[in-house]
Amino acid sequence: MELLIREFSFHQLNANLLWPGTFAFAEWLVQHHSWIEGRRCLELGSGTGALAIFLKKSFNLDITTSDYDDQEIEENIAHNCQANGITPVLPHVKHSWGETFPSAEPDWDLIIASDILLYVKQYPNLIKSLSFLLKSYKPKDDKAIPSVGNDQSSGMCMGLAVPAFLMSWRRRIGKEDESLFFTGCENAGLEVKHIGSRVYFIKPRENMVATTGSIDD
């Protein structure tokens, strides 16, 4: 599939470019498509919106984009949606990690992200937002969601929690810095599993009781 993606010259948080890791994660998701089909999805750090646009066109995935609270990012994602025949454009949430999330009862049962661990100082804020989204999840309706993905191409069978976070991380930083994020997730009551090809599966720890309330709690 060929997409028309507009990039712009500069953004303070690197949301202006289509990073190579996006292609690798897109390929991985195609190989494991049964794990995402039928899910209601939110992408963190959408940047240009390329991954979300690809998934919408490939699988008609119910997906919402999200990135730093910045009008330029939102407008560029909308432009890229229209350039690739997606009308109306994908819904978008402007959210700076760590700040109060716009929805008090998030209803996305699957969160995805690609290469969002570049800024180590933002890890606590990212973990705060991620914990809120996973622990405050409220189903939108009573639609049944498959709890197990059986992928014939890989021969793997894996239970995907509802909700869950799938993250691809292919950019290289120091191991000590990288471990700060995963340790921080575990300290926040999240379970982290590396499921191969530098893709990580994160969900609330099973003995954690779901909570509701503001991200500022």
TrEMBL record:
<dbReference type="Pfam" id="PF10294">
    <property type="entry name" value="Methyltransf_16"/>
</dbReference>
<protein>
    <recommendedName>
        <fullName>Methyltransferase small domain-containing protein</fullName>
    </recommendedName>
</protein>
<dbReference type="InterPro" id="IPR029063">
    <property type="entry name" value="SAM-dependent_MTases_sf"/>
</dbReference>
<dbReference type="InterPro" id="IPR019410">
    <property type="entry name" value="Methyltransf_16"/>
</dbReference>
